């Protein structure tokens, strides 16, 4: 099941991604599966993170993404108060073209071979129905359908957590958590973004949206006069009067091109790894833009799938996700007290929890 090539090994040993515990490259020739499973830390417990199914240009690119995402999950789970470390898996290929039952079963066997060190769930390109198939070969699978003992779609609570992060940002910046009459721009209105639109419309915010898929834009704009489509992300982030920018698609949204032209005063979105490289967090702070660390505010989904392992209760999970408001406020306060960007303050809190757990073990 495991196949490691010299080229990818070279990439692994040359990368500096934060001291991962284990990286496994998996291949099943019969089904066409090629996947990477990265475990960043199990200091707090079994690594927990989703499965991304994406047409990477190369194995090296897939490995780099898995390493980045796994590290982010360690920090996310630590700040969410979960007894889980961080891991992530990526399946290489276009899910529209190669996703089959046989491939998902082979992937389930790959996860099961780790003996519970990694617990998987949905991510970009994978869905509840896919996790139901994976679970047939692997009991360390979450994000399953209610009919199969799972909690279902985790994007509902992910969006709720991002909404709570926005409220915390509004409280910190403007002294009031309400988002009524604020203008919020959302880039990506897919699984999470469209739920976020619903929260904002309900509260009375003005919402601007963009997405590469026209059907996704139509779904959130039809029948909602408060929601307006814009041409693309560049048009969105340069809109005058934009209060909040919510990147809800793939990572790297905040980079050397976007930060200088961003008009929003708060960035708070669902996408993972929004900072394209180290230093972007300081660029945001220098421009007076408050950044709500992505792995803090988008933790609602992982809170849900972690709860599934112990008998899912939606209201219990929603109450836990609501605490993202307080956690985000605490991070803003520590950042101000320490004179560092919020991303650095969040990292320090997460690293402290992981270090204490590791020392206790």
Automatic annotation (TrEMBL):
Enzymatic reactions: L-valine + NAD(+) + H2O = 3-methyl-2-oxobutanoate + NH4(+) + NADH + H(+)
Source organism superkingdom: Bacteria
Family listed: Belongs to the Glu/Leu/Phe/Val dehydrogenases family.
UniProt keyword terms in alphabetical order: Branched-chain amino acid catabolism, NAD, Oxidoreductase
Pathway this chain belongs to: Amino-acid degradation; L-valine degradation
Alphabetized InterPro entries for the sequence: Aminoacid_DH-like_N_sf, Glu/Leu/Phe/Val/Trp_DH, Glu/Leu/Phe/Val/Trp_DH_C, Glu/Leu/Phe/Val/Trp_DH_dimer, Glu/Leu/Phe/Val_DH_AS, Glu/Phe/Leu/Val/Trp_DH_bac/arc, NAD(P)-bd_dom_sf
Residues covered by the Glutamate/phenylalanine/leucine/valine/L-tryptophan dehydrogenase C-terminal domain: 152-358
Name of the molecule in the record: Valine dehydrogenase
Summary of subunit composition and partner proteins: Homodimer.
Parts of the chain that traverse the membrane: none
Subcellular localization(s) per the UniProt record: Cytoplasm
Enzyme Commission (EC) number: 1.4.1.23
Keyword NAD among record annotations: yes
Organism: Streptomyces griseoaurantiacus
């Amino acid at each position: 099941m495991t196949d490691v090539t010299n080229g990818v090994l070279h990439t692994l040993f040359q990368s500096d991604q934060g001291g991962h515990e284990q990286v496994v490259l998996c291949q099943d020739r019969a089904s066409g599966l090629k996947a990477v499973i990265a475990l960043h830390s199990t200091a707090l417990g079994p690594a927990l993170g989703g499965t991304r199914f994406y047409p990477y240009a190369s194995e090296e690119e897939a490995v780099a993404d898995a390493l980045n995402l796994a590290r982010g999950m360690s920090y996310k789970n630590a700040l969410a108060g979960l007894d889980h470390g961080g891991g992530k898996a990526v399946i290489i290929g276009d899910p529209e073209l190669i996703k089959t039952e046989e491939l998902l079963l082979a992937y389930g066997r790959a996860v099961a071979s780790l003996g519970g060190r990694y617990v998987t769930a949905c991510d970009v390109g994978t869905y509840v129905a896919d996790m139901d198939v994976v679970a047939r070969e692997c009991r360390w699978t979450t994000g399953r359908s209610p009919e199969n003992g799972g909690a279902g779609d985790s994007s509902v609570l992910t969006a709720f957590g991002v909404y709570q992060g926005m409220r915390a940002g509004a409280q910190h910046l403007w002294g009031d958590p309400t988002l009524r009459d604020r203008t919020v721009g959302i880039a990506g209105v897919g699984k999470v973004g469209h739920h976020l639109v619903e929260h904002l419309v309900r509260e009375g915010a003005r919402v601007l949206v963009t997405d590469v898929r026209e059907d996704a834009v139509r779904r959130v704009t039809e029948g909602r006069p408060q929601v307006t489509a814009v041409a693309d992300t560049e048009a969105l982030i340069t809109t005058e009067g934009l209060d909040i920018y919510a990147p809800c698609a793939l990572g790297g949204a905040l980079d050397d091109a976007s930060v200088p032209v961003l008009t929003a005063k708060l960035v708070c979105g669902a996408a993972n790894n929004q900072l394209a490289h180290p230093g972007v967090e300081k660029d945001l702070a220098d421009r007076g833009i408050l950044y709500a660390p992505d792995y803090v505010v988008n933790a609602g989904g992982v809170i849900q799938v972690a709860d599934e392992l112990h008998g899912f209760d939606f209201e219990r999970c929603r109450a836990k996700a609501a605490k993202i408001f307080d956690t985000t406020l605490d991070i803003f306060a520590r950042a101000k007290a320490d004179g560092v960007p919020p991303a650095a303050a969040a990292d320090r809190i997460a690293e402290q929890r992981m270090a204490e757990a590791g020392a206790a073990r």
